[in-house]
Amino acid sequence: MKHPKLVISLLLTVLATTALQAQNRYVHSKEGTLLGRRVDAIVACATQSHKDWSRATKVTICKCMVDLMNHHFSDKQIERHARDGVVGLFGEDSSLANQVRDCSVNNEKGWSDFQQEYALECKKTLQEATPKPLDPAKIDEFGHCQLEMVLSNEAPNIEIKKLDDPNSDSFQKIVKKCGSPFKG
């Protein structure tokens, strides 16, 4: 092998990138406690945000907030703000407010990026939850439709965590409107 250092360097870069992508799928406390999926935290934040803001603005700001809070707040801080959520947490660390503003102002593609991220997460979750084969022609549209329903409160009683279970009532409500993501 002519350039073993280059090959090792490239391999380490690929492994680090893969690990970061897997790690960014979830949100953790400062101590490393798993708090949940990143997309669910963003959706929860967006549904609780100002009603006057556009959906794109809500999602862009919430993406910034969730990313900044990841590994930042302690378990005790998170527990103290269980009712008021992400917004309450940021009241404890005002320096993050400026970072959120900067992040959201400089993130023009926040909404479209999140739509793609949500559809991909939907696909991964369904692949993990069931052996049923997904229809590649339907899964992205299903993920986008599901996101629209959750953010628009078209299905206000849907529990986000139950959307992972294809046998749940919440999932079936989504299928009624969005169609099935499965083959056949």
How would you portray this structure in words?
The protein has helices at 4-23, 38-47, 55-69, 75-80, 85-92, 95-105, 110-129, 136-152, 169-178, and strands at 26-28, 34-37. The chain has 184 residues and is mostly helical. It folds into two domains: 29-105; 110-178, no CATH class. The protein has a two-stranded antiparallel sheet with strand order 1-2. A hairpin with a 5-residue loop joins strand 1 and strand 2. The longest helix is centred in the N-terminal third of the chain and has 20 residues, at 4-23. It starts with a helix and ends in a 6-residue tail after the last helix.
Question: How many structural units, i.e. domains?
Answer: 2
Number of helices: 9
Helix and strand content put the structural class at mainly alpha
Rounded Rg: 18 Å
Number of strands: 2
pLDDT average, as an integer? Answer: 81
Helix content bin: 55-70%
Major sheet: size, sense and barrel closure?
2 strands, antiparallel
Strand content: under 5%
* Principal-axis shape: globular
Question: Ranges with pLDDT <50 over ≥5 residues?
Answer: 3-23
Query: Which strand order spans the largest sheet, edge to edge or round the barrel?
Result: 1-2
H/E topology pattern: HEEHHHHHHHH
Précis, in short:
The protein is mostly helical and 184 residues long. It has 9 helices and 2 strands. The chain has a two-stranded antiparallel sheet with strand order 1-2.
